[in-house]
Every structure is written in structure tokens, then in C-alpha cells.
Amino acid sequence: MAERTVFQSTPRRHVVSLPPQASVWEAACVMTKANCGSVLIIDGAGLMQGILTERDLMTRVLAKALDAEKTLVSEVMTHHPQCVAPEMTVPDAVLIMLERGFRHLPIVSSSGKILGVFSVRDALPREIDNAVSLAEFHDSVNDALG
Fold this sequence. Notes:
The structure is a single chain. The model has no long low-confidence stretch (mean pLDDT 89). This protein has helices at residues 6-9, 24-34, 54-62, 73-76, 90-100, 125-145, and strands at residues 17-18, 38-42, 48-53, 78-79, 104-108, 114-119. The strands form 2 sheets. A 4-stranded mixed beta sheet has the order 1-2-3-4. It is globular. It has a single domain, classed as Roll (CBS-domain). It is an alpha+beta fold. Helix content is 41%, strand content 18%. The chain is built from 6 helices and 6 strands; from the N terminus they run H-E-H-E-E-H-H-E-H-E-E-H.
């Protein structure tokens, strides 16, 4: 069976986004309404400036007792997030997530068009198992090489 790509595995093609000057409160409302765990921050020229995730809201806003209505997403977002190509396989994307602690990866075409966001929730159990096996293999190779 051929492995799915991140683009094939993403159920929603609608990109949830906000401008950098939006408030954190607006972001939380948009994420809640869209039932998603992240929002892309895109400037007026259509360029991605960052991503704001549930984890960012918890660690960079709530844990620091910032005012969500006054704090801008540009102040607490993850700037210039790692992106993946639409043809990347799901296990390879999950491996990146495991190794780097990400839960969301923007999917961007070679021409720079934002196609969506891959979430670890989009992966099937067998794809996650494949990624874990790859991670374990990488660890054993690194251990062997010292």
C-alpha cells in the first residue's frame, strides 16, 4: 500500500489564518469556531509570518497571565515555522514532529502557496508506528556513531 502524503491526509483544505495585528483572543475564538489547534499568521501580502498553536496560547499567554484581548498574535506566535511540501509522506512528517516537538506543520507548495496545515491528528496509527520506528532507527544509528 502506498504511503499517504500530508496533503492527502489533511481533511480540510481551508486555511485558518489571521493577520499579525489580530489579538490572541480573536485567534482563540477563530480556532474554537474552526475546531482546530492552530492558526497561520499571514500578512497583507499573503506571506506567512508564523503560526499560533494551542501550546503557544497555554505557555506564552495563559502561563504568563497576558491579557488575551490586548496581546497581539505577532507577539506570541512561533515565527517562521518549519513547513513541509505537499508530497511529503505522513510518516516522514510525523518523524519531524516527534524529533522537534511539533504538533502542526504548514503545508506549502514549491511555489510558496499555503495549502493547509498537517496535524498529528491527521495521521493513522500505522503511520505513527512507522514514524516511531524511523525515530528509533535514527536513535540507534546516532548511538552507534557516537
